[in-house]
Design a protein that fits this description.
The complex is a heterodimer of chains A (215) and B (242). Chain A is α/β, with parallel strands linked by helices and 215 residues long. In chain A, 16% of the residues lie in helices and 26% in strands. Chain A has a single domain, classed as Glutaconate Coenzyme A-transferase (3-Layer(aba) Sandwich). In chain A, strand 10 and strand 11 form a beta hairpin. Chain B is of the alpha/beta class. Chain B folds into 2 domains: 171 residues, 3-Layer(aba) Sandwich (Glutaconate Coenzyme A-transferase); 33 residues, no CATH class. Chain B has 6 helices and 11 strands. In chain B, strands 1, 2, 3, 4, 8, 9, 10 and 11 form an 8-stranded mixed beta sheet that branches. A 3-stranded antiparallel beta sheet of chain B has the order 5-7-6. Classes of the chains: A alpha/beta (215), B alpha/beta (242). The interface between A and B is large, with 54 and 62 residues.
């Protein structure tokens, strides 16, 4: 049996996303996996990070002892503000998101459909405490929404699906899906391949996803 | 004109049972803890609380919930690592929840403050949150080919907010990300009470830098700065944007 293709590690995936973020972009990185993209932004690019709770120019985690309880990110973790950064209130912050002023948001997902429907806020489990936060605003508000996730569930099912079974966050809002196996574009005509890891053939990828993928 | 109240109790006199109370704060930043404690002491019941989160640990909003004063909560992100007080009430059906996308929460408050009757937004279109609590669909409309949902303003009887400094006219400035919902909630309530860490003389706040002009503020009360730990209890990373 030939060895399977080597999947992108979490950091390789974060670097792959970061590589596509242009100089001068205003970007919101969602909670969880996308946060890691910040560690891999191109050194030659000035990217301005937005945090929904009223920050532009968000910087890295402060040194231990320098934390400020009034300066936190969307995950409520301590952060810093870069020179040139700004504070603003929530209605302004969400107007930035909803008004199409952010060039890009990168979100985690439970499922994404081939046409770009996103499910990332609820698994719909009965009795679960619901929480949506800013996910719906980001998904439909940014100029482009990218998803970053592992392609397969722990059970081996594709999280890229024909139709989401989990409750939707937004309809037709995802432009690209960055995964550990491949980068895909969502189009009205279905999925299109942007790139795949070395050693992963087109037919093999389609078999993993269970959907046709255009070249 | 002097909006400075001598105590939290004086600032919160007259809150009625059944009031809608807007409570500022996001995570640990900008939570008006002293005012929430004052509201518990004041005793108003059957409250509707509008706040981004539903309390963490056992203090602040969680304590108000635990005291059984809140009938209904409108918020975007009730689930936290230590939101056990809310979780328990919700599972037992002891509190009503209206879950609102965070941007709709902010914009519905803004609309209330700006005299807007309702607005259409693409946020939530085609999702479960485009439904009313009774399951009926909210009004929708295609605008320029894109689906929009009709959302109504959220008016408060009272807003409780935390600012950094204020003067006797009610002008306020904030500190860093503790600003969050304060300015927009101040505009959306009939009576806004601002807790501040510093009371300053008229003219000390730079008019170019005042964030909330005093017209939106009814009372200002000085409270101690209580250091809370960013990333402390209740701040474990969640899976989605909070």
């Amino acid at each position: 049996m030939k060895p399977g293709p080597r999947r992108r590690s979490l950091d390789e995936l974060a670097r792959r996303v970061a590589q596509d973020i242009p100089d001068g972009a205003y970007v919101n990185l969602g909670i969880g996996m996308p946060t890691r993209v910040a560690n891999h932004l191109r050194a030659d690019a000035e990217v301005v990070l937005h945090s929904e709770n009223g920050l532009l120019g968000m910087g890295p985690t402060p040194a231990p002892g320098d934390e400020d309880h009034d300066l936190i990110n969307a995950s409520k973790q301590p952060v810093t503000l870069l020179r040139g950064g700004a504070y603003f209130h929530h209605a302004d912050s969400f107007a930035m998101m909803r008004g199409g002023h952010l060039d890009l948001c990168v979100l985690g997902a439970f499922q994404v459909s081939a046409s770009g429907d996103l499910a990332n806020w609820s698994t719909g489990e009965p009795g679960a405490i619901p929480a949506v936060g800013g996910a719906m605003d980001l998904a439909v508000g940014a100029k482009q929404t990218w998803v970053m996730m592992e392609l397969l569930t722990r059970q081996g099912a594709s999280k890229v699906v024909e139709r989401c079974s989990y409750p939707l966050t937004g309809v037709g809002c995802v432009r690209r899906i960055y995964t550990d196996f491949a980068t895909l574009a969502c189009t009205p005509a279905g999925l299109r391949l942007i790139d795949a890891v070395e050693g992963l053939g087109h037919a093999e990828l389609e078999a993993l996803v269970g959907l046709p993928i255009g070249p | 004109m002097n909006k400075i109240a001598a105590s939290v109790a004086e600032a919160l006199a007259g809150v009625r049972d059944g009031a809608t109370v807007l409570v500022g704060g996001f995570g640990t930043a900008g939570v008006p803890t002293a005012l929430i404690e004052g509201l518990i002491a004041q005793g108003a019941r059957e409250l509707t609380v509008v706040s981004n989160n539903a309390g963490t640990g056992e203090t602040g909003l969680a304590a108000l919930l635990k005291a059984g004063r809140v009938r209904r909560i409108v918020c975007s992100y009730p689930r936290q690592a230590d939101s056990q007080v809310f979780d328990e009430l919700y599972r037992r059906g002891r509190i009503e929840l209206e879950l609102v996308p965070q941007g709709n929460l902010a914009e519905r408050l803004r609309a209330a403050g700006a005299g807007i009757g309702a607005f259409y937004t693409p946020t939530g279109y085609g999702t479960d949150l485009a439904r009313h609590a009774d399951g009926t669909a909210k009004e929708t409309r295609l605008i320029a080919g894109r689906g929009h949902v009709l959302e109504y303003p959220i008016h408060g009887d009272l807003a409780l907010i935390q600012a950094e400094a204020g003067d006797r006219w009610g002008n306020l400035v904030y500190r860093k990300a503790a600003r969050n919902f304060g300015p927009v909630m101040a505009t959306a309530a009939r009576c806004t009470v601002a807790a501040v860490h510093r009371i300053v003389e008229l003219g000390e706040l730079d008019p170019e830098a005042i964030v909330t002009p005093g017209i939106h503020v009814a009372r200002v009360v000085q409270v101690q700065r209580v250091a809370t730990r960013a990333g402390g209890l209740g701040s474990a990373p969640a899976r989605q944007p909070a």
